[in-house]
Structure prediction request, 432 residues.
Amino acid sequence: MIRALGKIVTLKPGQRLTKHDFLLPLSDLLLDFVEQDLNGPSAALSSQLGCSLAHDFVGLSTIAGQLLWLVETAPVRMGTPDLLSISMLAESYLMYLRSACDVIAVIIHTFCIEERKKGQVPKESFNDLISWIEDNPSRVPESIKFVVEHKDWFVELRSIRDKLVHHRFDINIFTDNVAPSFSIMSTGDIHLHKLRKPGEFMQPGLTLTPLMPFLKRATQGALDLLGKIAEVIATQRGHTPSRTHVLNGVYVPALQHMLSYEEPRRKISEDEKRRRRIKARHLLNAGDYLSSLHLGHPDGFWLPFAVRMEELFDVEPYHVSKPRHPQYRDGEALIDWHFNFERVGQEYAILLRDGIFYTTDGLQQSKNDLIEFRRRFCKATAVLVSDMTRLPRDIPQDEIFEGLILDTDPLRAAKRAFATLMRAEPNSASTS
Prediction:
């Protein structure tokens, strides 16, 4: 459920996390402290730190959504200037992640260091904090010695960010039809402009790093760190976190998507290449990442169904409608999406609709809609397919009308729809 564009919200009793919610344990814990003592001396600081950390992850989720959409439409966007957008987005992602690390450093200083030692411990920089822990092992509280275990990913992140911000380097993106890679270099290097002949490669060559796996690794590192810090503070204070303060927003699903990202293999079969192109075309037609969520991207029902349906027909649909959704704020259910195929001189039409609407009246309305749909495409054989993972009730067998396919598995639903269409006579039930 979308409750905000992007901020921390408080769950009501009994509310469960949705794909638009993300629990940041450290923000949740700090806001617990605020509610315990709203007018206390540390409430303002706890609120500021908890919300500042959340703000950085709102930024990360928003950028992740843009990046993921560009990356996953790559199979049908070759030759475009996407590398410029990816470069700017990647730089912004690194800045937000670096900022989040420094907020975590302030939280550690505030809540994990004894008052009498605070003046000895760096406060505003996570890098300085790691160096202090390494240089002062006997003075470091036992509870935070684990922080140095996060040095590797952080040093890599910091090195790139510092080169971009302080040393006049640039992040250079290299794209293909699979996934982007990057290198860090100074594009003002005189060898690039004065000392090379046209067409001559720079020596030595650039080292390329896959972009998305690097961002995923650094993001997971920061989340693991803040989770462990939250456990330390909660234990020290004898507090059980409420787990009611969650990051909520339109782009929050992209944060989970980034964490589950798997770099595509480059050596794949022709069938898999075609499957990628079909999926990318649907994402491109959606228009942006937020619209692609309405198609069930990345792990829902409708996009895998559409891809498999086209594979079974072995031909691109000659018409794909714009998906329709309810106009109310959280209207992500699918009201109507249809596409039309032509195969061996015969036309076929598939109407898609979420089963969440299937009260008794809703099911009858869908039956009427299928009849009307068949009348509109009078030369086509048609079926109506519904995702039944969120059905509001059990549907008796005698209410399932001819041409209706209910399923919880998109690939199985596509197979059933294809088989039904192939068995049916052309327009056999146009007025049933």
